[in-house]
Amino acid sequence: MLTDTDRAAIEAAVREAESRTLGEIYCVLAQEASDYREVPLAWAAAAALLGPALLLLAGIEVQAPDLFNPGWTAAQVGGVAEAAARAALLGAVLLQGLLFVAVLLLASAPPVRRVLTPRGLKRDRVRRRAQEFFLAKGLHATRERTGVLIFVSVRERMAEIIADEGVASKVEPRVWDEAMAALVAGIRRGEPDAGFVAAIRMCAAVLAEHFPPGDRDNPNELPDSLVELPAL
């Protein structure tokens, strides 16, 4: 989604932003936050469990032979009833198996899986992936505890901004909402570079207000370049 020019623009925006604040901004662009492997399984299991019951409610029944044919003996009636019960049970099991496999294959296709994945689950996975990356890259270990992660997941069209405790102690989480909206808007327009640059500038304005460099030294503790993560 990004060209070298786009990457250079994002890096330049980070560099310019950090020249005005003690904050450290780190940008990540992920293709997808999770593979959501459990989603096709969940839909397949639900179809297998509910399918036979729904067919029964729709009026589709397993037809058994007439058990009260006056020409049959009691032994014959019992045998036919037992065979009918076994056939009905076997039919239900086979139907469940077919439904499970069919729905699993259908739901495993990436476009279908994305549609079937609940938005709440997507939001949780994006937030979790961002938190994992925040810790893995040491954004919690800057000198002033002013690391800020700007994380975008393309296929979910969602963003997360995570600030370390030094920033969080002075800045309410809602302050980042406008920057997150700019990120998501850029992704939806197919212009993630513009979304990142806008969000970086908004975050820089907040950080510069609360953490100006003043006369203190201002080392660059984290890379300014964008990190791009492939799909899982």
Give a written overview of the molecule.
The protein is an alpha/beta fold and 232 residues long. The protein has two domains: 4-36 and 118-229, Roll (Diaminopimelate Epimerase, Chain A, domain 1), CATH 3.10.310.50; 38-116. It has eight helices and four strands, in the order αβααααββαααβ. It has helices at 4-18, 38-57, 74-108, 110-116, 119-136, 165-168, 177-188, 192-210, and strands at 24-30, 147-153, 158-163, 227-229. A four-stranded mixed beta sheet has the order 3-2-1-4, with helices on both faces. The longest helix is centred in the middle third of the chain and has 35 residues, at 74-108. It is elongated. Residues 62-68 have low confidence and may be disordered.
Q: What overall form do the CA principal axes indicate?
A: elongated
Low-confidence spans: pLDDT under 50, at least 5 residues? 62-68
**How many strand elements?**
4
Tell me, rounded to a whole number, the average pLDDT. 86
Secondary-structure content class: alpha/beta
Helix fraction by DSSP (H/I, runs of at least 4): 55-70%
What is the CATH architecture assignment of the largest domain? Roll
First and last CA, distance: 17 Å
Task: Give the count of structural domains.
Answer: 2
The helix/strand order is HEHHHHEEHHHE
Number of helices: 8
Trace the largest sheet across and list its strands. Answer: 3-2-1-4
CATH topology tier name of the largest domain: Diaminopimelate Epimerase, Chain A, domain 1
Percent in strands:
5-15%
Largest sheet: 4 strands, mixed
